[in-house]
Amino acid sequence: MENVNQAEFWQERYEKNSTGWDMGQVSPPLKAYIDQLPENAKDKAILVPGAGNAYEVGYLYEQGFTNVTLVDFAPAPIEAFAARYPDFPSEQLICADFFNLLAEQYQFDWILEQTFFCAINPVRRDEYLQQMARLLKPQGKLVGLLFDTDFGREEPPFGGTKEEYQQRFQSHFDIDIMEPSYNSHPARQGSELFIKLRAK
Asked: What is the value of pTM for the model shown?
């Protein structure tokens, strides 16, 4: 399971097109959230970590959001995104380990969570929380989706329960919303929690 923390593991998945998690579109709950954001939010600093094919980043960009950063440590999806959006600012495409981002360099108003939490080794979940809290500005928001199911497997995606998430996240976040997602993609209906958390 340790190899999920290595860029080579994910690069190989993209090269072999072994990307069963990929919906081929922006996640419906995140699209709905983006669609209700006010016009004056278009310059807010937004991070999408472990973005993969980054449909959410593309959608934000298409809607006029100018300060969106994509992070993934596999080069393949970043290169594919850059080919799809040749005008996207290259400095906002970061090929790096999320856990190595420095809060002194990066601070965000929002971080969008889309299959990143479930892709990392569960032993790093507390580390994930600490890093998220570091990278968010005071009262910054972590918004997205978590799997509300136990996959019972030794490779991603790794699931969990609402009770576990509440216990973990409340150490660094105020929980505004953590409820079953009513508008998930059909392939994920009934297995996702929509979260909206605020950094303490």
From this structure: 0.86
